[in-house]
Amino acid sequence: MLIAGTVDKPSPLVFHNRYTQQTALTTRTGVETYEDAVYYLPPDMVKHLPPVIKQLLTLRNPEAWPSPPIERLNNVFARTLNEAKQLNAETGWLVLSTCTLLTTNRPSAVGHLYRFATRADPGSVGTRRNLEDAITRAAVMREAALKSVIFVGVPRTISSLASLREAIEDDVYAALRKHVIRYARVKHVRRDAKPLNIEATIERGMALWKSIYEPHAVKLYNKLGDFHPDFIAFIIQAYGTILSPLPRGQLEQGNLTRALGSVVAVATLRAEGRVGPQLTSHVFGLLKARYEKDLNDEDKFLSSDEGAEWVIRRVDEIVDAVTADTQDGLARGKL
Questions:
Q1: What is the dihedral of CA 289, 143, 150, 208, to 10 degrees?
Q2: How confident is the model at residue 194 (pLDDT cuts 50, 70, 90)?
Q3: Contact, 300 vs 306, CB < 8 A?
Q4: Model confidence at 147, in pLDDT bands (50, 70, 90)?
Q5: Torsions phi, psi for 220 (to 5 deg)
Q6: In this structure, which of 125, 231, 270, 313 has its CB flanked by the most CB atoms within 10 Å?
Q7: Rounded mean pLDDT of the chain?
Q8: What does the alpha-carbon distance between residue 20 and residue 144 come to, in Å, rounded to a whole number?
Q9: 3-state SS, one letter per residue, for the chain
Q10: How far apart are CA 314 and CA 302, in angstroms?
Q11: Per-residue confidence at 39, pLDDT binned at 50, 70, 90?
């Protein structure tokens, strides 16, 4: 546990354990560094797990699922991508594929998806089509994975983002955005909730909430607020910060439109399974994206009845392909 700088000055014996990572973090994210929050590591900081706990953590399948055979992945990717090209829905395909693999907890397959999407031969970096295309696809996949956190949580998102980062070539990564744009530039990175920033975030969140859930937006808002008074506030802030399109829309690298944001929701919830009411709500949300202004042709298709059906069926197809070994194992276990 980190102890804030308001504690008594530590003894000289532990002064070398002063926590200085904050400076590196704030510099990298483009937020101004501040000097009034110094952290110290306690002298008795835990460094090792007790053997019993360490052994316990190896039980009950702690690792992510391995990637399916590459040939099977390539086949399902090629089949679904070819169909997407015919429908002018390549970005939708990339988004739903990323979110499906992330949700099924196949992080290594997320990395392979990037290689498949950017190279003529996924196994050969020399066959990458072009740099700009790779940057665009990497940014879209990264944004889709980030938005997935709302529906499937942080752990799987971390694993898939890590696999994606490992797959992305250095020249592509160098061109990806490194600075924070969802928060205002403020002095205290841990106090970035300035009034204007909060108002803008909540405004975006409420606008997206209404767009997805009307005519039941108010009723659902009150219902979730009854579950826990902070729950609905968290959801609205998450919608405004993460799920909604980026503040400057298509001017920002990797921006996902309103329709593509709903593709994220439908893909993750469909792949997750057993969350029927939430999936139904977000399928409606995808269909309602057709009422947004200035839709491009892909968004018009994705938000159509045909497009929503296509998204669901392609998610099912990818889930079936990547979980086939798991399902076979489960079936054999029941015999």
A1: -30
A2: low
A3: no
A4: very high
A5: -70, -40
A6: 270
A7: 87
A8: 32
A9: CCECCCCCCCCCCCHHHEECHHHHHHHHHCCCCCCCCCEECCCCCCCCCCHHHHHHCCCCCCCCCCCCCHHHHHHHHHHHHHHHHHCCCHHHHHHHHHHHHHHCCCHHHHHHHHHHHHECCCCCHHHECCHHHHHHHHHHHHHHHHHHHHHHCHHHHHHHHHHHHHHCCHHHHHHCCCCCCCCCCCCCHHHCCCHHHHHHHHHHHHHHHHHHHCCCHHHHHHHHHHHCCCHHHHHHHHHHHHHCCCCCHHHCCCCCCHHHHHHHHHHHHHHHCCCHHHHHHHHHHHHHHHHCCCCCHHHHHHCCHHHHHHHHHHHHHHHHHHCHHHHHHHHHHHC
A10: 12
A11: low
Going by C-beta distance under 8 Å and a sequence separation of 6 or more, which residues neighbour residue 238?
A: 150, 205
Full-model pTM: 0.86
- Give me the residue label for tokens 């250095």: 170
Determine phi and psi for 3, rounding to 5 degrees.
-105, 125
Backbone angles phi and psi of 39, in degrees to 5: -120, 145
Do strands 18-19 and 39-40 pair parallel, antiparallel, or not at all (unpaired)? Answer: antiparallel
Take residue 167 and report the two structure tokens written for it. Answer: 């797959």
Joined tokens for residue 152: 């499937």
Closest listed residue to residue 148, CA positions, set 108, 190, 96? 96
User: Can you give the pLDDT at residue 12?
Assistant: 40
